[in-house]
Amino acid sequence: AQSVTQPDIHITVSEGASLELRCNYSYGATPYLFWYVQSPGQGLQLLLKYFSGDTLVQGIKGFEAEFKRSQSSFNLRKPSVHWSDAAEYFCAVQGPGGYSGGGADGLTFGKGTHLIIQP
Amino acid sequence: GAGVSQSPSNKVTEKGKDVELRCDPISGHTALYWYRQSLGQGLEFLIYFQGNSAPDKSGLPSDRFSAERTGGSVSTLTIQRTQQEDSAVYLCASSSGQGTPLHFGNGTRLTVT
After folding, report:
1. What mean pLDDT comes out for the span A36-63?
2. What would the mean pLDDT of A48-72 be, rounded to a whole number?
3. Between residues A2 and A52, which one has the greater pLDDT?
4. B103 touches chain A (CB under 8 A)
5. In principle, which of A102, B4, B32, B98 could form an S-S bond with B49, CB 3.0–4.6 Å?
6. A78 burial class (0-12, 13-18, 19+ CB within 10 angstroms)?
7. DSSP 8-state symbol, B9
8. Across the interface, which of B4, B99, B107 has its CB nearest the CB of A97?
9. Is A48's pLDDT higher than 80?
10. Helix/strand/coil for B35
11. Residue A106's pLDDT is what?
């Protein structure tokens, strides 16, 4: 079964500093990989996705993520955070070909990383 | 509509009552998902629809939970005889098919008193 680990429950970063949120996955092949962001009281917004090709993926709001097959990782980065980036961040995986049925859900999510921005 | 719409946005109910949560997906999206988000627990998969059928109900936590989808569009998640542990945010998402990203609604915050 596929799984996603986000080892950091909370991260505090100063405004203007760089950010890296970690994500490791377990899957038998190369999955589709996603990062979502959730602001308080809101649903999840897709930041970026990796399906294939270039392992460095650019997303919205200045975020990027790098797929590293050897490390089964898909870490999210941003060179300089803004106070508006404070939110919950979720990494997710999906089997190639999308939903596979048989008890598997469309996406498997990590438990999230809560990002706090210090002024 | 432009995005996934869920209603109500907030629901407070007494223990033992039934509740219905509604999801209106993005027009044309064939796949629809329900997730539950509890504090500190991440997102828990509940049920998946492809069209009007639900090939995977494995995430429904008990037989008090049911869901249906009609016309390949709107879905309703029903919780019967609500319990306090049902308090959570219920998120709906839709997608246009396999391998495509999920688009989420803003959720329904359910509080059972």
Report:
1. 91
2. 93
3. A52
4. yes
5. B32
6. buried
7. S
8. B99
9. yes
10. strand
11. 66
Give 3-state DSSP helix, strand, coil % of chain A, rounded to 5. Answer: 10, 50, 45
For A89, nearest residue in chain B (alpha carbons) = B42
The structure tokens listed for A72 are 């089964």
First to last CA, chain A: 41
Cα separation of A90 and B24, whole Å?
23
**With contacts defined as CB-CB under 8 Å, which chain B residues touch A96?**
99
Nearest CA in chain A to B56: A103
Nearest to B104 among A41, A44, A105 (CB): A44
| Cβ–Cβ contact B71 with A under 8 A | no
Q: How far is B83 from chain A (nearest CA, A)?
A: 22
Instruction: Yes or no: say if B95 and B27 are a contact pair by the CB < 8 Å rule.
Output: no
Q: What is the dihedral of CA A24, A78, B2, A98, to 10 degrees?
A: -20
- Residue A105, pLDDT > 70, answer no
Cross-chain Cβ contact B93/A96 below 8 Å: no
